[in-house]
Amino acid sequence: MRWQTLDRENCSLARTLAVVGDRWTLLVLRDCFLRVRRFEDFEASLKIARRVLAERLALLVEEGILVKRPYQDRPVRYEYRLTEKGLELYPALISLVHWGDKHYAGKSGPPLIHRHRTCGHDFRSALTCSECGEALDARAVEVRPGAAAKPAAPIPANHIRSRTAATP
Amino acid sequence: MRWQTLDRENCSLARTLAVVGDRWTLLVLRDCFLRVRRFEDFEASLKIARRVLAERLALLVEEGILVKRPYQDRPVRYEYRLTEKGLELYPALISLVHWGDKHYAGKSGPPLIHRHRTCGHDFRSALTCSECGEALDARAVEVRPGAAAKPAAPIPANHIRSRTAATP
DNA sequence: CCAAGTAAGTCTTGATTTAAGACTTTGTCA
DNA sequence: TGACAAAGTCTTAAATCAAGACTTACTTGG
């Protein structure tokens, strides 16, 4: 599978990964949430190759996850900030971080602690059902194909063949 | 940065990504949550190169995210199943899926619909604070270094130099 | 018995991607 | 004028991946 074509897959995870699903991109986003904004700061923080960083930032901007805007003129210098769409990746990121905290932190505990400003407590993230508010886990979830899953009855003449296996 | 060494980074996200943070691995896990269990089924569903699939499955087993066990003898055949640790990745996965649903679904809606068995409703995932139960977003969260963040006072003699930038 | 089939891999080869670091551009400051 | 800074771009060698042929061990049909 070519990753460029992944965004045409009929699966929301595949389409998401086509955009943010590469290690560097996720680490760049982590830095964004930690208020890193400038090219050189990303580079220093991540020790990423400059070419790769430039490419990733450009993609994130193109996808509307970051905005690039000048923070000074003469000479013009840019910073990258999360858009609303970018901020919405927070649940996914924090879930990965907390999973890492749980399974890979040393004895001295996690390297970063997250505090909920509103209630004032350190927290772990919890996944809940948007409808009933209960905590969710994988076993309590049932999946069925939506309208957009492999075309059921009326297939447009020139429609791309869909695959036989279920593709979320 | 070499990805093999990433698990030694002092950042839970980096350590997590060292294990699951590659596109194929995340898609393999998606399939696991959709109850795909056999080598050939993963291959057919993902159209992944067999060598890469074998490698990824082996890593996931080694990390205790999947277990490999025979489902028949004569000839012995194996299946891969999520462990408890693997199941705990669900929040991260479903958050990525729902983000994709929101931003990349076509007009006919998302390809898969998730239903909460307990309450019977189709849902979106919601991130809440484990302490107060309120919905969480990135702006309501404050971060501070934990005990494990770059060694503060007493540095063991042979300790690896820590980096200057903040690494969550 | 022999041939074909199946599941789960391994191996080989050529194409992509990445890492590392030098180089470029535009402007400031001493 | 020379040194410095930020934000890139370019080059080349090394690592990783894709595609598909090959392997192993056992079953089933003729």
Could you name the key traits of this structure?
homodimer, 168 residues, alpha+beta, Arc Repressor Mutant, subunit A, 2 domains, 17% strand, disordered C terminus, DNA-binding
Question: Your description of this structure?
Answer:
Chain A has 168 residues and is an alpha+beta fold. Chain A has 2 domains: 1-83, Orthogonal Bundle (Arc Repressor Mutant, subunit A); 89-141, no CATH class. Chain A is built from 6 helices and 5 strands, in the order ααααββααβββ. Chain A has helices at residues 12-20, 23-33, 39-46, 50-62, 84-87, 90-104, and strands spanning 66-72, 77-82, 112-116, 125-129, 141-145. A two-stranded antiparallel ribbon of chain A has the order 1-2. In chain A, a hairpin with a 4-residue loop joins strand 1 (66-72) and strand 2 (77-82). The longest helix of chain A has 15 residues, at 90-104. At the A-B interface, helix 1, helix 2, helix 3, helix 6 and strand 3 of A face helix 1, helix 2, helix 3, helix 6 and strand 3 of B. Strand 5 (141-145) of chain A pairs antiparallel with strand 3 of chain B, so a sheet runs across the interface. The structure holds a DNA duplex (30 and 30 nucleotides).
